[in-house]
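Q: My hope is that you can spare some time for a protein that puzzles me. Underneath my words sits a plain record pairing an amino acid chain with its backbone structure tokens. Those tokens are not coordinates but codes from a learned vocabulary of shapes. Thank you; the sequence and its tokens follow:
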Amino acid sequence: MLNTNHQHYFGSNRAITVLLTFIALLTSVNALAVDKLRIEDQTQIPNAPKKIAQAPYFLPPAESELQNNAFGELVKRGEDLFVNTKALLPQNVGNEMNCVNCHLDRGRKANSSPLWGAYPMYPAYRKKNNKVNTYAERLQGCFTFSMNGTPPSADGDIILALTAYSYWLSTGAPTGKSLPGRGFDEPLPPKGGFDIARGKAVYEKQCVICHGENGEGKKVGVNYVFPPLWGKDSYNWGAGMHRINTAAGFIQHNMPLGRGETLSDQQAWDVAAFVNAHERPQDPRLINGDIVETRKRYHADDGVNLYGTTINGVLIGQGTH
């Protein structure tokens, strides 16, 4: 059964919704412009990595194509939850993140883990929990790690609505085929490795205006319009974005907002390392309070990450308190 109270709540936050919609629109316009360049003349994209010149990307259905029926209402509910996750689901979100913070343009934008690239790939085996996951379980994982919260029930109205939204955005997408733009298309590791000090310089020049000097994000009133990148209100140490390689891919394609594809591979890796060298909420899989043991079990083979390592004499991964 759908929660009919969301429409009243959503309406009472209309100013925030308008602002978030504007931000999503800005991202969407930039994405469409870049995609058009990819299709018509790949040489026009300044400083773009050559490996991304594989467009055109899959196009999800337009809003105008959504049917005015029970299914359409379910899809709209899912979109509301996707964009305004913290406001509508405070009982499930333990930080200040919304789904749309990582899956840009309401889950539509290529190279920001779009929903149309994810839904058709499930069920799928995930090394993270060593089992074949349903799409509902995958969504629950986002609540546990990226949202640092409590996942809704797999068969409840929240997951059903988010699944319906994902299913609709995937209309016409092939099942079981990894589409271009599905993930973050991570840049190759720089030959000299990443450098946290250089990453700080990139952050101060490119990121501070939106995410703050201390990675605290930016608010309008009590609501975040640009998410925190570290600290108690950001994703936790178990989230996929804590991997430097994953964050580097997201950053290079999508940041600064509206100016994606402008950072070099080196800059993307450096600033991702800088961001992920900061503390954030603890990995909920922490083993008996032992960070080193938790690294061995869950992080040692999980891409490039700093959890459980020591930098300048400080053990990384202690979490926020």
Summary: The chain has two domains: 6-169, 196-315. Confidence is low (pLDDT under 50) at residues 1-18, 24-53. Residues 14-40 form the longest helix (27 residues).
